[in-house]
Here is the input.
Amino acid sequence: MPKTKKNSSFQSIKGMHDILPSEQLYWEKIRKELKETAEAYNFLRIDTPIVENSDLFQRSLGETTDIVEKQMFTFQSRGGDKLTLRPEGTAGIMRSYIQYGLSHLGQPLKLYYDGPMFRYEQPQAGRYRQFNQAGFEIIGGGDEPIYDIQVILPIFRLLENLKIKNLIIHVNTIGCKNCRPAYRKKLIEYYKNHQKDLCKDCNRRFEDNPLRLLDCSNSDCAEIRKEAPAILDDLCNNCHKHFKSFLEYMEELGLPYELDSHLVRGLDYYNRTVFEIFTSGVSEEGKSFDLALAGGGRYDYLAEMLGGRSTSATGGAIGVERIVEALKLLKINFGARPKAKVFLINIGDLARKKSLALLEDFIRAGVRASESLGKDSLNAQLRAADKEGVEIALILGQKEAFSDSVIIRDMKSGVQETVLIKKAVAEVKKRLK
Here is the structure.
């Protein structure tokens, strides 16, 4: 992220960042690959509002999650409604699915999205208070583990298409409402002996939501977590079969994965399969580390939590800023923006007016043309043309403007020829072949 110069009365709000022209190539490439990947895997685009009813997130994400407790941008509308800038995309998509009866479409319904999200947290590299996510959701069609794979695959391929290497998928299962209570008891029993060493947040969640203890980023809590019991020993028969089948699909596809028995993700709507995708061995300032790029999981209970019918679903999202950060750290670039091959030079008011029309002719013909219509000096415009490295300059002076002609100048040889304006595009295209 470029440094800002504090020479203005106004600065961007803390945690809200501008995407400057110098960074747009990364963003354009990510959006292009997202669209092409989504279409290849038969996902349909959906866009939901950035503002939703606050209860939507409190009910779906969980009252004791960091997002609901600390990070939501919530305000009251003039009409008295309590509204929240969306902190993630899945809850709004499920709300839309229920509201518009999208279950009448072919099931499962495969949807993708991208757009800004908002969380009030401490800004750091790759993490902002306004950030962008792109995601894939599969809703309906049953709870077969093949759908979990069909969410992971496009995300993984998208990252591969962006030339990010050393990808590893961390996977776990967090069971279902039938087998999780027994695991919950084990967690409480284990953490009772460490309660005095837990952070303030974990102590508060100890009784209400012990699964959240496994998601804490506090260094002391992370150390305690290492010896915490894993859920794999307490899975019911159905969840055991589901996870086993899921891993068999991963093996069949040759996807690189690692079992992470304490991975739970931070939202209450998840059940069974959860995953996170990292790129390993990223280096910065002589240090090597793994960078998290994407994550998600199954959320079979979310529709019911929001007042809909029981509907199986699974999904995952990538953090776009994280992807951009990874591309920079890994020194992956996608070349420069295509340069113009033609430069229009004008001298005088009449020539300037005719240059605008001529520029439109080149745009319609698909020929990239540049100009400096605001400059009066011929030498200044020639210097600009030379700086851009164009092959051809078109010079339109007063004399040419009155005779509806233009000078075509070869910038390498200096050879030039006068042609009628109406023939300029065709003549230039011949020379560019």
User: Anything to note?
Assistant: The mean pLDDT is 86. The domain at 21-179+235-329 is CATH 3.30.930.10 (BirA Bifunctional Protein; domain 2). The chain is about 35% helix and 25% strand. The longest strand covers residues 271-284.
